[in-house]
Structures are given as C-alpha cells and as structure tokens.
C-alpha cells in the first residue's frame, strides 16, 4: 500500500466519523458504558484473584506418619508421595520440630506444652504442597490410601468451600464480561452497518472499477478502531481514578490483615492496556462484521 | 475477445434468465444487445463483468474463464472492463473531476498519472470546463458523459453499457452515441444493451437479439427489429 493510499484511508475514516455524528456518539457511548462495567468487574475480580492466590498458597497437606514406621518405611512413603504427578514438594518435619512450632505459635502460653518435651504425643509429618492448590483434595485422597499414612489433614471442608467460592466468582465475572463485550460489539456493528448503508453506492462503484476488498475494508477498519479507542478513554480514566482513591482509602486499614489489594502500579498500566485493547478489538470486530455483508468473498 | 459457450443462468428464485447462450465478440467490435424487457439482456452483460456467475457454461475474456474466476481476482478483471449504467451511478458529494479520479484512486494509481488521465478523458467527453461541478449541477447527458469518462479512465479493452441512453432525451442520446463511437474507434470493444430503436437503426452495428434467455438473431449490420 502506498503512502497516499494510507493517507486516503485515514482521511476517509475521520470524515465518516464526522458525517455520522450521532451514530458515532452512540457507538462511542456504547463502548464507554461497556468498558466502564468491564473495567470495574476486572478490577474487582483481579483483586479477588490476588487475594485467593495468597490464601491458596498457604494451603498444605499434613501427612501424619504412623508411629510404627521405620526410617525405611518413611523413605518409601516419601517416594510414593513424590510419585504423584500433581505433587510439588514434600518436606519432612519430625515430631520434635512439630512440638517446637506448636510452642512457638502459642507464644507466652506455649511454655505449658514444654511438659510434653519428655514424652511427645505428636507424630512425625510430611508437609506436602501441590503444584496447583486446587489439586489439594485429590492428592490428599490418594495419600490417605498409602501404608503408614496415619492421618491426612488439609483443612477438610473449608478448602473445598474456598475453592468452590472463588471458582463461582471467577465464572460469574467472566460470563458477565463476555456478555457485555458481545453487547458492545453488536451495538458497534449496528452503527457501522448504518454508515455503510449510507455508503453502499460508493462501495458498489468501488467494486465496479476494480477496488480490492482489502482497499474497501481499510477505512471501515480504521473507523471501528477509532470508535473503540475513543470509547475506552473515559472508562480508563474513571476506573483508574476510582481505584487509586479506593486504594489510598483501604490500603492503610488492611495493612495488618491477610487481605491485600493489588498495588496501583503496574496494575494501572495493565488495566488501562486491557481496556484500550478491548475497545479497539470490539470496534474493529464490529465494523468488520458489518462490512463483510457488503463484500463478495 | 469475449467468448460464451452454452451459458445458462438460473437465479436463486428459480427464474431462468439465460437459456443456453453461445456467442463470440472480437476485440474492437461494437455490439448492440436488443430484446424485450425481461428477456435477459442485463443478465447477459452482467456475465461479462462478473457481476453474476453462470449456472453452467463458460465465459472466456482474453483467455480467462470468468465462470471459474476466483472472487479475489474479480477486481483485476474489472480494471480491464468499463461499465456504464442507465442511472449513471455518480457520487453526489464528489465533483466531476473527483468522480472520475475515484476510479484511479481506488486502484492506487499515482497522483501524477491520475491528473493526466482524468484531464484526457474529460477532454474526450468534452467536459473539461466543468471539472469542478457537482453532479446535481449537470444535465442528464452531462452526467452520463462523466460516468463514461470514469468507465474508460483506466483504458479498459472492453466497455459494457446497460441502456446508457435509457434516461436521456433523443438529442442527448445522439451525443452519448457519438462518444461511444469515438471510444470504439480507438479499438475498444463496446457491448451495449439498448431499447433505442432509432439509434440501432441509424448507427448500424452488429445486433444480438435476445428473447427468453436465448439469442434469436445475430446480424452483422442489423436492425432493431421490434415494433415499439
Ligand atoms: N437478481 C435477480 N434475481 C432474480 N431474478 C432476476 C434477477 N435479475 C433479473 N432477474 C430476472 O431475470 C429475467 C431477466 O432479467 P434481465 O436480465 O434484467 O432482463 P432485461 O435486462 O432484458 O430486462 C427477468 O425475468 C428478471 O425478473
Ligand atoms: Mg435490463
């Protein structure tokens, strides 16, 4: 494509935005509203994701080793556990170490446990971490069947609930976002359909005198791109300002809890980039859908 | 050279518009296509610029079979064929000059060549002095001359005209015919579907008569042959 042609396509695409003033405004508004909602969902979802990732990271399986197991038995058990494909790491912790941890975790009052140092009632344990936290239950069930695995603990019940909840939240958010994106694409494709309808004579003549489909598509491609990008500007500004405000408000209060918000940078760049990209994609996609009907391919 | 072999065309709604057409048109010929309304004249010429595909049969233009031409190659075909319609098909928001230049811009001709070629063809149709006018500031005959200028601006080997004088008064129609004759004299093939008996009977050329999708007459210096 020559430089002159490219100039022509840009000129045409801008002319069309102006010529179809109200429709342009309507499409940009559609993108704006969509991306505003998508942006809010995205911010909330990513923060929930961030939070659950941290909780999930602390999930571990504690395998209590049977008291009668010899060192060789323990080693065999470790081999068996390590052979499970989903297992990430296996760490051994003797009953003495376990007791010290317990004493420590109780602080001042822990000293009363010191009595047990002579006759430790705890078991040696293997601490197992899975590669994917969601495999915890599955792996635990397998380990339970192994010989010398006396008790297998992983926070039964709670873990399942946590994973089920985060999964539901993720799916609902994803569903909503996809639904919104399709709505916006539909609105854009309708707008461009109308602008194309007004220009079908021009397209007909272009085809008649031998313009390629690619040439005919270019201005519409750009028009869709502008609609999408213009529509993304306001949501990016609003969502990021709001997040910065909320972050400043909540961050100090959450400092000592295990709930942590994503820091503003690079999160702001990511959200901004994603919204801009989504805007551009739905704009281009919407316009290409409607041009398609006017071209024979 | 245009060569049709056993061309049949049935539209999706079941209408049989062409019912076995075989014809040969040599480079540089001037051919009228006549026949009653609904006979298939427009469909016949649409085959040549690949606006419609035949249901069966072959259409060879300079060695290329349009029946098998890929959709992506159609633009290249169109650059070698000019088309003129009864309703001119000009863009109202563009000037005369821009309307003609449009045909070269969309095939990415260089700006220098565009200017030169557009002025040449506007001279040929005698509208150089109205280059800056808009279509609605021109008479019907002048608008048709602009559309003819556009059809020949990329020097096609063939010009196809579907009732080009259908909307024009007799005097203006003669002017248009004069331009077509001059284009033909330069070696361009002209295929013109027409209802204009006066013209066909006066400017004698080859006449192909179509009725119900079949060629019923093909004469070298023919007559219109239908009562009005
Ligand atoms: N796009 C189309 N779809 C269906 N039928 C058509 C179409 N174009 C033309 N026809 C039918 O095909 C027949 C021939 O039409 P046409 O080629 O336009 O004839 P003419 O130009 O001689 O008047 C007519 O019966 C017409 O109704
Ligand atoms: Mg017709």
UniProtKB/TrEMBL annotation, chain A:
Keywords of the record, alphabetical order, are: Cell cycle, Cell division, Cell membrane, Membrane, Transmembrane, Transmembrane helix
Under the heading Gene3D superfamilies, the entry gives: 3.30.70.3040
Q: Where's it mainly located?
A: membrane
The reply to whether Transit peptide figures as a keyword in the UniProt entry is: no
Domain (ABC3 transporter permease C-terminal): residue spans on this chain = 176-282
Compartments, as annotated in UniProt: Cell membrane
Q: Where are the transmembrane segments?
A: 21-46, 172-192, 225-247, 267-286
What single Pfam family name could you report for this chain, choosing any that match?
FtsX
The protein's topology relative to the membrane is: Multi-pass membrane protein
Any Gene Ontology CC annotation: plasma membrane
The protein's job, in short, is: Part of the ABC transporter FtsEX involved in asymmetric cellular division facilitating the initiation of sporulation.
Family according to the record: Belongs to the ABC-4 integral membrane protein family. FtsX subfamily.
Instruction: List the protein's name.
Output: Cell division protein FtsX
Automatic annotation (TrEMBL), chain B:
Task: Report the Gene3D superfamilies cross-referenced here.
Answer: P-loop containing nucleotide triphosphate hydrolases
Q: Which SUPFAM superfamilies match?
A: P-loop containing nucleoside triphosphate hydrolases
Membrane topology for this entry? Peripheral membrane protein
Query: According to its UniProt record, where is this protein mainly located?
Result: membrane
Q: Per its UniProt record, what InterPro entries does this chain match? A: AAA+_ATPase (IPR003593), ABC_transporter-like_ATP-bd (IPR003439), ABC_transporter-like_CS (IPR017871), ABC_transpr_LolD-like (IPR015854), Cell_div_FtsE (IPR005286), P-loop_NTPase (IPR027417)
Q: Which sequence ranges form a coiled-coil region, renumbered to this chain?
A: none
Location comes to: Cell membrane
- Residues forming the ABC transporter domain are 2-228
Give GO BP annotations, semicolon-separated.
cell division
Name the domain of life this protein comes from. Answer: Bacteria
Q: Which GO terms describe its molecular function?
A: ATP binding; ATP hydrolysis activity; transmembrane transporter activity
Read off the CDD domains from this record.
ABC_FtsE (cd03292)
Extract one GO cellular component term from the record.
plasma membrane
Q: Which UniProt keywords apply?
A: ATP-binding, Cell cycle, Cell division, Cell membrane, Membrane, Nucleotide-binding, Transport
- Identify the PANTHER family for this entry: CELL DIVISION ATP-BINDING PROTEIN FTSE, IMPORT ATP-BINDING PROTEIN
Protein family per UniProt: Belongs to the ABC transporter superfamily.
* Biological role stated in the UniProt entry: Part of the ABC transporter FtsEX involved in cellular division.
| Assembly information from the UniProt record | Homodimer. Forms a membrane-associated complex with FtsX.
Name of this chain's protein: Cell division ATP-binding protein FtsE
Tell me what organism the protein belongs to: Thermolongibacillus altinsuensis
């Amino acid at each position: 494509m020559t430089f002159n042609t490219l100039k022509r396509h840009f000129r045409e695409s801008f002319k069309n935005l102006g010529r179809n003033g109200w429709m342009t405004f309507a499409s940009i508004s559609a993108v704006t509203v969509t991306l505003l909602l998508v942006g809010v969902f995205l911010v909330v979802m990513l923060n929930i994701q961030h939070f659950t990732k941290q909780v999930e990271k602390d999930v571990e399986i504690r395998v209590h080793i049977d008291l009668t197991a010899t060192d060789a038995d323990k080693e065999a058990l470790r081999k068996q556990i390590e052979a499970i494909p989903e297992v990430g790491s296996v760490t051994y912790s003797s009953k003495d170490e376990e007791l010290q941890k317990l004493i420590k975790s109780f602080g001042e009052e822990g000293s009363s446990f010191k009595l047990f140092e002579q006759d430790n009632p705890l078991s040696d344990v293997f601490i197992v971490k899975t590669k994917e936290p969601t495999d915890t239950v599955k792996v635990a069930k397998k380990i339970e069947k192994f010989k010398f695995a006396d008790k297998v603990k992983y926070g039964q019940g709670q873990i399942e609930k946590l994973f089920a909840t985060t999964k539901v939240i993720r799916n609902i958010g994803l569903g909503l976002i996809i639904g919104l994106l399709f709505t916006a694409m539909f609105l854009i494709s309708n707008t461009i359909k109308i602008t194309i309808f007004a220009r079908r004579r021009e397209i007909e003549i272009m085809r008649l005198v031998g313009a390629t489909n690619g040439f005919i598509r270019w201005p519409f491609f750009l028009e869709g791109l502008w609609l999408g990008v213009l529509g993304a500007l306001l949501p990016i500004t609003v969502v990021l300002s709001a997040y910065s405000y909320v972050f400043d408000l909540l961050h100090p209060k959450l400092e000592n809890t295990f709930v942590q918000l994503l820091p503003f940078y690079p999160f702001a760049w990511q959200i901004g980039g994603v919204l801009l990209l989504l805007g551009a994609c739905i704009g281009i996609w919407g316009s290409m859908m409607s041009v398609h009907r006017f071209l024979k391919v | 050279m245009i060569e049709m072999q056993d061309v049949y065309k049935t539209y999706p709604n079941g209408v049989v518009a062409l019912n076995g057409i075989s014809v040969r048109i040599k480079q540089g010929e001037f051919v009228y296509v006549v026949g009653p309304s609904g006979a298939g004249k427009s469909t016949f010429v649409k085959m040549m610029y690949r606006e419609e595909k035949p249901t069966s049969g072959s259409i060879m233009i300079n060695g290329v079979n349009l029946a098998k031409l890929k959709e992506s190659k159609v633009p290249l075909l169109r650059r070698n064929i000019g088309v003129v319609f009864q309703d001119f098909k000009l863009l109202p928001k563009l000037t005369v000059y821009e309307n003609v230049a449009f045909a070269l811009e969309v095939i990415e001709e260089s700006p220098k060549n565009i200017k030169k070629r557009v002025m040449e063809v506007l001279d040929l149709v005698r509208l150089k002095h109205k280059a800056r006018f808009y279509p609605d500031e021109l008479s019907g005959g002048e608008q048709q001359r602009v559309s003819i200028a556009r059809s020949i601006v990329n020097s096609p080997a063939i010009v196809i005209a579907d009732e080009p004088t259908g909307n024009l008064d007799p005097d203006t129609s003669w002017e248009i015919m004069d331009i077509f004759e001059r284009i033909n004299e330069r070696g361009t093939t002209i295929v013109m579907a027409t209802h204009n008996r006066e013209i066909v009977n006066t400017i004698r050329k080859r006449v192909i008569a179509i009725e119900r999708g079949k060629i019923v007459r093909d004469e070298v210096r023919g007559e219109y042959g239908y009562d009005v």
